[in-house]
Structures are given as structure tokens and as C-alpha cells.
Amino acid sequence: MFVEAPELATYPNLKHAFFTREGGVSEGLYASLNGGLGSSDDPEKVRENRRRMAEELEVEPDALVSVHQVHSPDAVVVDGPWAGQRPKADAMVTAVPGIALGITTADCGPVLFADPHVGIIGAAHAGWRGAFTGILEATLEAMVNLGARRDKIVAVLGPTISQGAYEVGGDFRARFLEQDPQNESFFIPSERPDHAMFDLPGYIGRRLEKAGIGEFANLGLCTYANEEHFFSYRRSTQRNEPDYGRLISAITLIPSYL
């Protein structure tokens, strides 16, 4: 039902999960653990799926919080369950135990963060646009503002589309090279003219390492290639399917250890 990262699992005051698509109640395109509040799935089934995830994380159902993701560079501080509409943002940070920060993805990079020494966590939705415009750095800055030490922060990248499945056009590549010529290392030739294969996990890792964090790890799991375990926006789009399920990656602080 979920994958754990050894880099986070060793700390007794943290609980986290990179949930797969298995273990839920949704059907059809959404089978079975679809956590996407913005999907066209039956809302009751999504709520039940998220309840099951909250149970695994040992938090109350409404304590599994998510934002309205818009591929932005914006991170918000979470003090408790949302009282109204979810804010538009692409990362969350908190120092409050018992709150699970849940990011939804279906090819983009879910990154879970923790400074376990002071009890501050974060979660970011890092698609190419968010990573390019600074969502990872914004998450780190928000954590530091709460009291985290940058060089003590551990960040783990969960299931993400791999370079072998991520073909992009020439304009996409040009945008990255204009930002930094060294970004050339994240592209390899595609079989199609004026196209390339983009290494999103590698780009995310480079940005985090340059930001000076203590440790970065990549689970190395491809959402596109492993249909049994993961939803994929690109796979669904290529099949002309009307919608797709969303994976949840979440992290929480365990109250009894703080």
C-alpha cells in the first residue's frame, strides 16, 4: 500500500508514506487508492481512501491536509486542518505534531522533508514548472523560518516520471539551458527530431543539493513505467483517458516523541 524511505524511517519522531495506487476503494481509471480531491472520482470513495491513508499515518482523517496545487513556487505554513477552502500552493511545512502533510502527484515529484532534530517537516509538489521556479527552495526557506537547520534537513523524492519516459520539446529544453547552461546534463536525445528526454528526478536532486540540505535521497521509482503500483498523468493522456488518479505522499510528526 505504501513505500517508506530508510532515510526518514530511522527517526522515531517521524511517520511517512509514499502511497501507491493499491489498497483503496476507487474503481476504473482510479483503481484503487486515489487520493485526488480534484479528480472526477466519486468524492465518497476519495474520502474513504484518504481515511485509510490517515489511519496508516496514525492521524485523524481531517488531519491529512493537502493544498490546491497550481504548479507554483509557493509554500504555506500549516497549523491545523483547514477551516475552509484549501489554499493555492505547492508545498506545506509544519512544526505541529499530528498533522500529516499530503502532496498529490501523478508523474511530478513528491518531496518529503524533515529536520528530525527540531521536529519540523515539509512536503512539496515538484513538477518541472515548480522545480524550475523555486518550490524546493521555498519549502526549505519556510522550514528554516520555523527553526529548522538547513544542513540538518533530509529530503526524499518519491515516485516520479523517469527520464526514459519524459519526452519534451525543443522550447522546453531551451528554457532550461537559458536558466543555466549546466542544465544540459539533464537532457539526452530523443528518437524524434527537436525533442529530448528530461531527467526531472536528477534536476530536483541538483536543486536540493545546491540549496545546501543535509541529505537527499531518490527512491528511483517511475510512475509511468509501473502501472500496477502508480498513477501516471502522461500515461493516461497518451491513452486519451478522460482523467487519472492521484498518488499521495505524506509525512507527520509523532506527538509522543516531541
Largest sheet: 6 strands, mixed
Question: What is the approximate shape?
Answer: globular
Mean residue pLDDT = 97
Helix content: 10-25%
CATH fold category name: CNF1/YfiH-like putative cysteine hydrolases
Cα(first) to Cα(last) distance is 27 Å
Q: What is the H/E order?
A: EHEHEEEEEEHHEEHEEHEHE
Low-pLDDT residue intervals, each spanning 5 or more residues: none
CATH architecture descriptor name: 4-Layer Sandwich
CATH homology-level superfamily:
CNF1/YfiH-like putative cysteine hydrolases
In total, how many domains does the architecture comprise?
1
Supply Rg. Answer: 17 Å
Count of DSSP-assigned helices: 7
User: What structural category do the secondary elements indicate?
Assistant: alpha+beta
User: Could you tell me the strand content as a percent range?
Assistant: 15-25%
Strand order of the largest sheet: 4-5-8-7-9-13
CATH class: Alpha Beta
Number of strands: 14
Task: Explain what this protein looks like in three dimensions.
By secondary structure, the chain is α+β, with helices and mostly antiparallel strands. The protein has a single domain (8-162, 215-257), classed as CNF1/YfiH-like putative cysteine hydrolases (4-Layer Sandwich). It is built from 7 helices and 14 strands. The two termini are 27 Å apart. The relative contact order is 0.21. The model has no long low-confidence stretch (mean pLDDT 97).
